[in-house]
Amino acid sequence: QVQLVESGGGLVQAGGSLRLSCAASGSGLRINNMAWYRQAPGKQRDLVAVIIAGSTTNYADSVKGRFTISRDSAKNTVHLQMNSLKPEDTAVYYCNMNGYMSSISPFNSWGQGTQVTVSS
């Protein structure tokens, strides 16, 4: 089983920045996609950013130009740098990774979620 542990959430004023991190643990991991989702109260969980095996990235329109996703493949870690934060960015942020364990067993895992609150 692949466990994902997130860190870096918190409370910040509008216009501020936060950096989220998510590290995967498990044996023989080969991770394909790493992504960040978010879910605001009463709303569905939406994709924020994804980095595909290699370096291709995609972002939700609402965060383009403000958020940057990056990965450290050697450490099985994904980061989300969030700048120019807005109150509407307030949500629980979840990381998601998929790939293979020990090169043969597929996995698709979620982090526990980290709260990001942006005050106006």
SSE class: mainly beta
The H-and-E topology, N to C, reads as EEEEEEEEEEE
- What radius of gyration results from the CA coordinates? 14 Å
Strand-residue proportion? over 45%
Oligomeric assembly:
single chain
The count of DSSP E runs of length 2 or more, i.e. the number of strands, is 11
Q: Give the CA-CA distance, first to last residue.
A: 40 Å
Task: Report the principal-axis shape.
Answer: elongated
Low-confidence stretches: none
Please give the count of helices. 0
What's the mean pLDDT score? Answer: 95
Largest sheet, described in full?
7 strands, mixed
Keywords summarizing the entry:
120 residues, mainly beta, four-stranded antiparallel β-sheet, 11 strands
Report on the architecture of this protein.
This protein is elongated. It contains no helices and eleven strands. The strands form two sheets. Strands 2, 4, 5, 6, 9, 10 and 11 form a seven-stranded mixed β-sheet that branches. A four-stranded antiparallel β-sheet has the order 1-3-8-7, with no helix packed on it. It has 120 residues and is mainly beta. It starts with a strand and ends with a strand.
Task: Please sum up the structure shown.
The protein has 120 residues and is an all-beta fold.
Lay out the secondary structure.
Blueprint: E1 3-7, E2 10-13, E3 18-25, E4 29-39, E5 46-51, E6 57-59, E7 67-72, E8 77-82, E9 91-101, E10 105-110, E11 114-119
Parallel strand pairs: 2-11
Antiparallel strand pairs: 1-3, 3-8, 4-5, 4-9, 5-6, 7-8, 9-10, 9-11
